[in-house]
Automatic annotation (TrEMBL):
InterPro entries membership: 5hmC_binding (IPR052181), EVE_domain (IPR002740), PUA-like_sf (IPR015947), THYN1-like_EVE (IPR047197)
Originating organism: Alteromonas pelagimontana
UniProt KW keywords: Phosphoprotein
Coiled coil (residue ranges): none
Any Pfam family the entry gives: EVE
Domain EVE: 3-151
Domain of life: Bacteria
Phosphoprotein keyword on record: yes
Protein name: EVE domain-containing protein
Length: 156
DNA sequence: GCCAACGTTGGC
DNA sequence: GCCAACGTTGGC
């Protein structure tokens, strides 16, 4: 099974919003970065686990967990001229952007802060802390996943 | 709001 | 293909 971290701005869409969606499920769309797109299209698989990370907000950090309920398929918003994510260079024959569906699994009692993650030596290799920290979709190793889950659930 | 660290664009 | 200019991200 694969592990991932997806970034989102909770003022727009956060773990609370996901929890209250019908079926607690939502397409993860609007990703417009090629490296992140490649992950969504090629690597993120059904039933993979996803950390939901809140950025650009009061409590920056990992807010909870979702799972992938549908693997990569074309992001509908690229075809919609009304959408903020519209891409005139994309076509249905040749889609440029992809999305997956995610389903809510759990919200942590407290957001696991970025500052705590940064202060954890075992986690120094994670993309959040290293180069590429601007990626909105990034892989997490099984070890990192376990460490972060334990920290988030207070089982240090 | 600042600004560093990227990513993208476009002229050549 | 280079690289300067520009745009975006995201922590603080």
């Amino acid at each position: 099974m694969g592990y991932w971290l997806f970034k989102t701005e909770p003022d727009t869409f956060g773990i609370e919003d996901l929890k209250h969606r019908p079926q607690q499920t939502e397409p993860w769309d609007g990703v417009r970065n090629y490296q992140a797109r490649n992950f969504l299209r090629d690597s993120v698989a059904l039933n993979d686990k996803v950390f939901i990370y809140h950025s650009s907000c009061k409590e920056v950090g990992i807010a909870g967990v979702a799972k992938v309920s549908r693997a990569g398929y074309p992001d509908e918003t690229q075809f919609n001229p009304e959408s903020a994510y519209y891409d005139p260079k994309a076509s249905r024959d040749n889609p440029r952007w992809y999305r997956v569906d995610v389903t809510f699994e759990q919200q942590f009692a407290r957001v696991l802060p970025l500052s705590t993650i940064k202060a954890t030596p075992a986690i120094h290799e994670i993309g959040l802390v290293k180069k590429g920290h601007r990626l909105s979709v990034m892989p997490v190793s099984a070890e990192e996943w376990q460490i972060l889950m334990n920290m988030a659930q207070g089982k240090q």
